[in-house]
Amino acid sequence: MPELTSTDRNLLAALKRDARASVTTLAEQLGVSRATVQTSMERLVKSKTIQRFTIDVDSSTGIELIRAIMTIEVQGNLTSSIVQSLKKMPEIVSLHSTNGAWDLVAQIETSSLAEFDGLLRRTREIPGILNSETSILLNTAK
User: Beta-strand (E) ranges in 44-85?
Assistant: First the structure.
């Protein structure tokens, strides 16, 4: 990962607040030129610091994603290959190593129960995954 400048850090924070903000808006918020923002964004995307741009959908639109958290126990010597396999699944929007009883925590988003079921099946088929537990997120309090 490249060394992040203060502009990079401020840009990442602004994009976390609003990934749809225009380069002009971002430049105004950060107090830098449009070219600086564009150059920084291109470098962050190329280095894979920024891996994707996403949106949050208002639940009142009737378009609801099925969101869940999956905790995963892995066979220790296969952790790297398991992580690589999980990162290829677009339904897994974030993946974290953790301590305690579980080795990995995955945040999942799917558009249907059939897609969700397919993800669970594909995950269980990955060699080295010893156990998993998945909880669907029903309501967001904040």
Answer: 66-74
Summarised one tens digit per residue, pLDDT across range 83-96 is 999 999 988 989 99
- The whole-angstrom separation of Cα 39 and Cα 18 is 18
Please, how many CA atoms are within 13 Å of residue 48, restricted to the half-sphere of its CB? 2
Q: Point out which residues pair with 71 in neighbouring strands.
A: 105, 133
pTM: 0.60
Query: Is the pLDDT assigned to residue 19 strictly greater than 90?
Result: no
CATH 1.10.10.10 residue ranges for the chain:
6-46
Q: What are phi and psi of 15, to 5 degrees?
A: -70, -30
Q: How many residues does the chain have?
A: 142
Tokens standing for 11? 């840009």
Domain 6-46 has CATH 1.10.10.10: yes
Higher pLDDT, 18 or 24: 24
100: which DSSP letter? Answer: S
d(CA 84, CA 7): 30
The label of the residue with tokens 């010893």 reads 130
**CATH tag, 59-136:** 3.30.70.920
